[in-house]
Amino acid sequence: MAQLGAGPQPLAKLAQPSGFALPTIQRHVAVLQEAGLITTQKQGRQRLCAVRAEGLDIATDWITDTRSKMSAQTDRLAQYLDQLIRKSHDL
Fold first, then answer.
1. What CATH number does the domain containing 8 carry?
2. Are residues 58 and 84 in the same domain?
3. Which run of H or of E encompasses 60?
4. Within 13 Å of residue 22, how many CA atoms lie on the same side as its CB?
5. Quick one: DSSP state of residue 1?
6. What range does the domain containing 78 cover?
7. pTM exceeds 0.70 for this model
């Protein structure tokens, strides 16, 4: 994904710096494509991969929502712990 941030890349170029075999990269690309994070397009003998911005928006929304829920939970936990500490000092 980081490599694709610079723009569309041929599949073979994505495999070069990773050290993984091309079939391994193809499987990773298939998962990213199925998740809606990238698109692929055949250009001659190459398969060109590109980031799909809409897919990243969905991921960003999920992360933001999850972060909000987790923050609310940790806030409630902090309040509960404060209450316990106050009660233990009152004893």
1. 1.10.10.10
2. yes
3. helix 53-90
4. 6
5. -
6. 53-91
7. no
44 and 9, same structural domain?
A: yes
Buried-state track 47-63, b at ≥16 Cβ within 10 A, e below 16 = bbbebbeebeeeeeeee
Q: How many domains are contained in the chain?
A: 2
Separation between Cα atoms, residue 4 and residue 58, nearest integer Å: 18
Q: What is the 3-state secondary structure (H, E, C) of 3-55?
A: HHHHCCEEHHHHHCCCCCCHHHHHHHHHHHHHCCCEEEEEECCEEEEEECHHH
| Location of structure tokens 């890349």 | 9
Task: Tell me the one-letter amino acid at 46.
Answer: Q
Are 26 and 38 found together in one domain? yes
Structure token digits, residue 55: 């897919």
* Other Cβ atoms within 10 Å of 9 Cβ, number: 19
For the chain (91 residues), the mean pLDDT of every run of 10, in chain order, is 88 84 90 92 92 87 94 93 90 70
47 and 72 together in one domain: no
Distance of CA 23 to the CA centre of its chain: 22
